[in-house]
Write the structure tokens for this entry.
Amino acid sequence: MISRRGLLVGGTSAGALLLGGCDRLNQSESYRGVLRSAEGLTMRAQRLIMDRNALAREFREADMSPIFRSNGTADPGTPLYQQLLTGNFADWRLRVDGLVARPLSLSLQQLRSMPLRTQITRHDCVEGWSAIGKWHGVPLGLVLDAAALSTRARYIVFHCMDQLAGRPYYESIDLIDAFHPQTILAWGMNDRVLQVPHGAPLRLRVERQLGYKHAKYIERIEAVESLAGIHGGRGGFWEDSGDYEWYAGI
Ligand SMILES: Nc1nc2c(c(=O)[nH]1)N[C@H]1C(S)=C(S)[C@@H](COP(=O)(O)O)O[C@H]1N2
Ligand SMILES: [Mo]
């Protein structure tokens, strides 16, 4: 355990103490394994030091970026997506299933009639660009409550309609982020309906994490106990390829 005094000594001491207190790194462990355990350390240290329920900074209208670029998929480009888009997503449904007592199938209309949260926040992409935009959507926690999340659920997985390099895009977050007040399922951006390059009809905003966690083109939300059985088992598209870490707290 880390004493309060240990934490107060300085920002770096908590990490050092954790390293000392944790299992010694096995010599035969692969480089990737070492990186993964380092990620765990970072995550635990950050959780101890930071209040994960604290709000991300919100900005004024005047701070909004004149241009908000798109990144990753800018159009899923499948015949099904094209068909849904042509019909203004009237035939699109958000499925909410997995470890829930009441699986849901929600239309865009239903999501738009749920309580609205609007927030002006800064999006930080790991590739080194940021942009401030205004987002409109329903708090994810309300949707999970409506689905009656099971007490066994530990992660929320977002399945997307696009593929990159032949693999479906997906992401996941834990329940702390899922029920954070600024975590919303956004159907609007900058006072307009969400546009295709930004993830129409629905994308995640999880403001305490880096850009790649903000799943666009969501079609299904799945509550799970473990990420092991989902695609590559590491909780996300970039996590599975080993490019980025699962916990991307900022
Ligand atoms: N489905 C899906 N979601 C995604 C991506 C993607 O390629 N597909 N790219 C991610 C990355 S790396 C970033 S920075 C943001 C970009 O969001 P934007 O296109 O609205 O700027 O979406 C994230 N969510
Ligand atoms: Mo990104």
Summary: Residues 69-73, 125, 160, 162, 164, 169, 197-199, 211-212, 214-217 surround MTE (ligand 1) (CB under 6 Å).
